[in-house]
Write a structure and sequence with these properties.
By secondary structure, the protein is of the alpha/beta class. It contains 14 helices and 13 strands. The structure holds 6-O-phosphono-beta-D-fructofuranose.
Length: 385
Amino acid sequence: MRGVCYFLIMATKIKRIGILTAGGDSPGLNAAIRAVGKAALGHYGWEVVGFRDGFRGLVENRRINLDRSALSGILTVGGTILGTSRDKPHRMVIDGKTRDMTGVIRDNIRKWGIDCVVCLGGGGTAKSALRLHRAGINMITLPKTIDNDVAMTDATFGYATALDIATEAIDRLHSTAHSHHRIIVAEIMGHRAGWLTLGAGLAGGADVILIPEIPYNVERIAGAIDERSRRGSNFSMVAVAEGAMNRDDARLFDSAEKKLERAKTLEGKLEAKRGVAALDVRHQGNTLRLATQLEELTHLESRVTILGHVQRGGTPCAADRMLATRLGTACADLINQGNFGVMVAARGDNTEPVPLEKVAGKRKSVPPDHSWIESARSVGTCFGD
Ligand code: F6P
C-alpha cells in the first residue's frame, strides 16, 4: 500500500491533523496515538496536534504538539497522555450551563487549520464524531474500549488487556474459594455487554458466568452450585458482568431502552433517559445482593470481589499494541485518501473504513448462540438460564 501511494502522498492537501481520546480510558490508547502520529509525521509529513481531555480540548484550545519526542516512549504506557473525558460536543457544561458547542468547535477547527480530527473512543464517541462530521469537520474514529462492544469491528483495543487482567483475577480467586469452600462472586466490567465476563469466565474456568445478554434466574444458579457440592466440589467461582440482571429486571430495562429508542421529541427522550437512569441506580449493588441470595439458598459462605478500574489500568498487552498500531497507521492512510466520516474497523488481519452512521450509538452484544457460550456450556458452565 505504502509503496504505491507515492503519487497520492505528493497530491495530498493535508497539512495538520488533530487527535483526541474520549470516553473511558483503555490500554492501547497511547499505542494508537503513537501509530497515527508517527505515520502522519514520518510518512506523510503532516503536523500533529493532540487535544486534551476529549472534545473539551477542542472548545478550550487546550493542546499539545505531538512531535517526535512527544510520541516517543509511549507505546507501553497505560492510560492516555492526552487525558480523556465523557464530554459531548452538543451537551457540554460550560460555566455551569449545558451548551451545544458544535458551532464553536467547527469555527475553532477552521481557525486553527486542522484538516481532520481523529477520535479514539467507543460507540458514544462515534456518535459525537458523526455529529461533528455532519457539521462540516473531517472526522475519523478508532475503536477503543475494554468492553469490546463497538459495532462493525472484529475487535477494540483495550479488550485483550482487560481480558488478561480479569482472567488472572479469576485464577487467583479460584484458589482462595477452593481453600475456604466458598462461593466467590467476581464482578467484571463491560457496561451493557458481556464480552469481558464471558471471555474471562471461559478462560478462567468460572463455574457460573452471568452476562447481560442472558438474564438469570437465581434459583437456577443456586441449583448448579448445589449440584457441584453433591459431586464433591464445595466451592464455586461466579463471574458476573456489571450489567447482568435477573429476568424481572431485564424486562424492565428492555422496555425502558425501547421507550428511549422510540422517543421522537426532546422531552420524550429526556423522560425516557430518566427512566433508564433510575433503573441504573436501582441496579447498583446487584452483585452484593446476588451473593447474599446465593449464600441463603446454598448455605455456602460467599464473598464478593469487584474488579473495577484495575481492569482499565496499566500496560497494554501485545495484542492491544498490535491492534492499536494497525488501526492507527491505517487511519493515516485513510486521511491521506480523503476518506472521512468513517471508523477504522478491524477485519481479520486487515482493516476497513466503516461509515460512522453504521457505528454511532450502536452496541455489539454477545449473540446468545455465540461459540464461546456453546463451549462454556459444553464444559458444564451455568449461565443461570
Ligand atoms: O466503557 C468502559 C467502562 O470501563 C465500562 O466497562 C464501565 O461500565 C464504565 O466504563 C465505567 O465508567 P467510569 O470510568 O466513568 O466509572
